[in-house]
Amino acid sequence: MKRLFISLLGLLAFAAVQAQTSMHVYVDGHHYIYYTSQTDSIVFMDDQAGAAGAGTRQSPYNVAGALKAGSVLAEGERSDSVYVKGYVCRIDEFVQPGLSSYYLTDKPTTNRFFVYRSKGLANEVFTSADELQLGDTLIVRGVMQRYKGFVELATGGYVYSHNGRTERAKPQTGGDGTLENPFTCLDALNYTKELPADQTSTESFYIKGKVVSIRETFGTQYGNSTFYISDDGTTTNQFYCYRVLYLENRKFAEGDRQLQVGDEVVIYGKVVNYRGTTPETAANTAYIYSLNGQTTATAGPNDNANDASAVPALGRLEFPKVKGGNTKVLIHTTSDSYAGGINYAVEWDINKKSQRWTAYQMNKGFQGSAGRYTDFLEDPDLSASERLNDTYSYYKGSGFTRGHICPSADRQYSEEANMQTFYYSNMQPQYYNFNAGDNYGSPWCRLEGQIRTWTKQSSTDTLYVVKGGTIENDQLLMTIKNQLRVPMYFFVALLMKSKQGYKAIGFWFPHDNDDHSADALGQYAVNVRTLERQTGIDFFCNLPDDLEEQVETLDATSVKEAWGVQ
User: Fold this and answer.
1) What is the pLDDT of residues 392-450, one digit of tens each?
2) What is the tens place of the pLDDT at every residue in 188-222?
3) Domains in the chain: how many in total?
């Protein structure tokens, strides 16, 4: 029998090579197939041992079970509709209007079940040839037939389940490709498909998505990477990112973080309808604008950066150097994925029951009309022992207002984001005339408005903001009920990323209840290095050291000129 088996395979090989097709033979109850093409050849069998399943949605056939059930079919005969589960082991073709032919198998057997020109999930056509990948787990639905002696799923079937999903992704569409409203991957696909074959767009667009797979990892020789992104991280509606540069539109360098599957990215560049079949970024025109909310690469020496190995957010540019010890970093996130889902962060001194700073980002996407939340709240991330008991009772009748550090007006993009600004951990006691004053004319209040104005400028990419009040014993105005610390000074540190690069400025405000509405903002402006000496806080520590030195040490006169502050 062994010699017969070998002889049969040899015969099959010779005959199939001549015909460049597949041949089938049944020996001792087994179905052997020799398949060959110009590129490859395989031998396998549909051994019915291990057959399982009932062919229903609740209990689909495995491949062996489908082959066994189909073995009773006569040539040209069709079964009732059945469900078959297996792993994609070979993809034969992708034909318009979005149908795919492929083989399923039961791992690790050599069984193969052919699915002929099926549709994708939800009985809808596949959107691209890349939607189906080797190794994917499928449950297909359709009718089986015997065609030229071979049991297969006839055309008209579809994918009921794809890697556990039974519905197509429903990405939010309507993006216009701007930074404030990036294309989704589906948006990008739809736009690029309308371009003539091999035509590159005249404009560059922002496209957001999650990394699905990586074709070429970043390397230091060419400095770019090729990968797929989609709206939900699956192979549905993938967009091809071809030879994309790293953050800040530069080549990948030694020490940069490597791209990983699941990363959330925003890509910026031109797109092309390659050969009229593959929408993709145009080669050498695109780069990663943001990677998991981070827009700045950190290659190069940086001796004072935060350790972000356990908490990646600590590596973002708005974060000052964390003091540590008896402090706790509170990172408030929202369900909105904008800016990496981070609303703002606070370093909280547990012993002093007070915050050291609030840090957050500002860009055009944070605009909106959510309105003002109506109540003040204890921070849910602080236990009762880490904060004051009934914080409001300390403010009541004290003569001080509850001064927002991250203002309510800076977080209008969602009600949830605005509500979080009313946590007491984001408050410091402020005199009325300092906090707002009549007609909101205080320098502190006017600077908050100016920050929003700078954010809206067309050249502005992102503003990184750090604000707070002094809480060390030698910089206190007083304490309320021997507990609530009232700062003697308030400070603001700003770092702007724009089309021209980076610049930084600091502001140092004495805290009093006088009317300073006639004061110019410029009289409070300092460079950031001066502000660091006054506060003891290392601002923008996550910048590379040479860039940090450059933007923080510019003399005060030049700083004010760069920012247009009088």
Assistant:
1) 999 999 999 999 999 999 999 899 999 999 999 999 999 999 999 888 999 999 999 99
2) 998 998 888 898 998 899 999 999 998 888 876 77
3) 4
- Using alpha carbons only, give the angle 350, 356, 362 rounded to the nearest 5 degrees: 130
Domain of residue 193: give its range: 185-291
CA dist 531 and 38 (Å) reads 71
Does 515 lie in the same domain as 448? yes
- Alpha-carbon distance of 252 to 336, in angstroms, equals 29
- CB 34, CB 23: distance < 8 Å: yes
Has residue 297 been placed in a domain?
no
Task: Report the helix count and the strand count for the chain, using DSSP H and E.
Answer: 10, 27
pTM: 0.53
CB atoms within 10 A of CB 328: 17
User: Which residues are CB-contacts of 453 (< 8 A; sequence separation ≥ 6)?
Assistant: none
Give helix 545-552 / helix 528-535 axis angle, nearest 10°: 90
**63 neighbors 111 (Cβ within 8 angstroms):** yes
The answer to whether residues 271 and 192 touch, using CB atoms and an 8 Å cutoff, is yes
Give 190's strand partners.
none
Cβ neighbourhood burial of 508 (10 Å; 0-12, 13-18, 19+): middle
Tell me if 421 sits within 8 A of 408, measured CB to CB. Answer: yes
| CATH number assigned to the domain comprising residue 144 | 2.40.50.140
Beta strands, E only, 318-385: 327-333, 342-349, 354-362
Q: Identify any residues that bridge with 491 across adjacent strands, giving them in sequence order.
A: 468, 508
Distances (CA, A) of 57 to 54, 62, 142, 353, 542: 9, 12, 11, 58, 53
Q: Which amino acid is at 249?
A: N
